[in-house]
Write a structure and sequence with these properties.
Elements (H helix, E strand, L loop, with lengths): L16 H11 L7 H14 L3 E5 L2 H11 L7 E5 L5 H8 L3 E5 L10 H6 L5 E4 L11 H11 L2 E5 L7 E2 L2 E2 L6 E5 L12 E5 L2 H11 L22 H12 L1 H19 L5 E2 L7 E2 L5 E5 L4 H13 L5 E2 L20 H9 E4 L7 H17 L1
Parallel strand pairs: 2-3, 2-4, 4-5, 5-8
Antiparallel strand pairs: 1-9, 6-7, 6-11, 8-9, 10-12, 12-14, 13-14
Helix pairs in contact: 1-8, 2-8, 3-4, 3-7, 9-12
Length: about 375
């Protein structure tokens, strides 16, 4: 509504979050052990359809642990999409390996498997498909590529908890998957991450690395160098409460997206997000592309919406233009990502937005498209 401010994202804590956190405080179990960690991991694994879930401090450490458990190290290459959050590439570098960037598809904005295959060398060890903005990657194509070339697959599902590929949820679509539980994600623990897998050995390795490398049986014995990547019991308590309402959280994203679709369908000058027939898109962010715009025009459009009380945010910068990675590959290898990243923006997407809220936001989008 006019006069109201609409942030791009808001965490919704509408369940037992306070009750469970107060239980942690009252019982003094506030650190990285406690009943909520176990309960959260078990419930998360069950929801995704995986055997194991390993909680950790954030989505980036989840990626790092997964890569380490797959033996990634110096001299290795791992293919990642160029259009993603920088954590996907950074985690590869943490292992001493090299991220190799692939262009994206023009409709889903997810990794181009065709381009990815052209990048494979004898040094390529794995591929990390990212379910960008909530739409799953075509995992059949990913696994066909991986099987053909002997690559591991780590599913970066940071933005896509609850999304589905051919009726199966993210987190169960490959040998290993990672999630972010940051405050703007589908569900949140404030900061936090999760890894899912069906591989018992992989799960055990990641649990060991997460806790400083401590032996699970012999107290204060450290057979390997590990990391302090643990989640706290209080964070897990919030996660348990959030997961109890996961159907509501996912349903709200889809409801909000359907309202945007209804109001913006057929609007000249923009492209709306898609949902492939084999996909369930959970719309972590409702994202639009300004047709024919450049980055300056897109930023001007965002500034005008801010004047209307509507916060937006741009698409991620492609990895290949960022200072740490800009010299790795020629920029003309990424025509789709270059265009989409310059033209894309995310509009307010969170549970609780009303139909009248969406009406106001879409009315202003249409007005600014026509009149600036």
């Amino acid at each position: 509504m006019e006069g109201k401010f609409y942030p791009v994202a808001v965490p919704v804590l509408n369940g037992n979050e306070k009750k469970y956190v107060m239980d942690c405080i009252d019982s003094s179990w506030i650190s990285s052990t406690g009943k909520y960690i176990t309960a959260f991991e078990e419930a998360f694994a069950a929801y995704c359809g995986a055997r194991y879930a390993i909680s950790c401090s954030n989505g980036t450490t989840a990626l790092h642990l997964a890569l380490l458990a797959h033996g990634v190290g110096p001299g290795d290459e791992v293919i990642v999409p160029t259009l993603t959050f920088i954590a996907t590439a950074n985690a590869v570098v943490y292992c001493g390996a090299k991220p190799v960037f692939a262009d994206c598809e023009p409709d889903t904005w997810n990794i181009s498997i065709e381009h990815a295959e052209s990048l494979i060398t004898p040094k390529t060890k794995g591929i990390i498909p990212v379910h960008l903005y909530g739409h799953p990657v075509d995992m059949d194509a990913v696994h066909a590529l991986a099987q053909k070339h002997g690559l591991f697959v780590i599913e970066d599902a940071a933005e896509a908890l609850g999304a589905e590929f051919n009726g199966r949820r993210t987190g169960s679509l490959s040998g290993c998957a990672t999630f972010s539980l940051f405050g703007n994600k589908i569900i949140t623990t404030g900061e936090g991450g999760m890894i899912t897998t069906d591989d018992e050995k992989l799960a055990s390795t990641m649990r060991t690395l997460r806790g400083q490398g401590i032996d699970p049986v012999r107290k204060y014995w450290f057979p390997v160098i590990g990391y302090n990547y643990r989640m706290t019991n209080m964070q897990a308590a919030v996660g348990c409460a959030q997961l109890e309402n996961i159907d509501w959280h996912v349903g709200e994203r889809i409801r909000v997206a359907s309202l945007y679709d209804a109001q913006l369908q057929g609007t000249s000058g923009i492209t709306l997000p898609v949902q492939k027939p084999w996909a369930k898109n959970v719309y972590w962010m409702y994202s639009i592309v300004l047709d024919g715009a450049d980055e300056e025009r897109r930023n001007q459009f965002m500034a005008l919406l801010k004047e209307d009380g509507i916060e937006t945010r741009p698409f991620f910068y492609p990895m290949h233009v960022l200072p740490p990675y800009k010299d790795l590959q020629p920029h003309d290898q990424f025509p789709v990502a270059n265009r989409i990243a310059a033209q894309g923006l995310n509009v307010p997407t969170y549970g609780g937005l009303s139909e009248s809220d969406i009406q106001y936001i879409t009315d202003r989008i249409k007005y600014r498209l026509l009149h600036g």
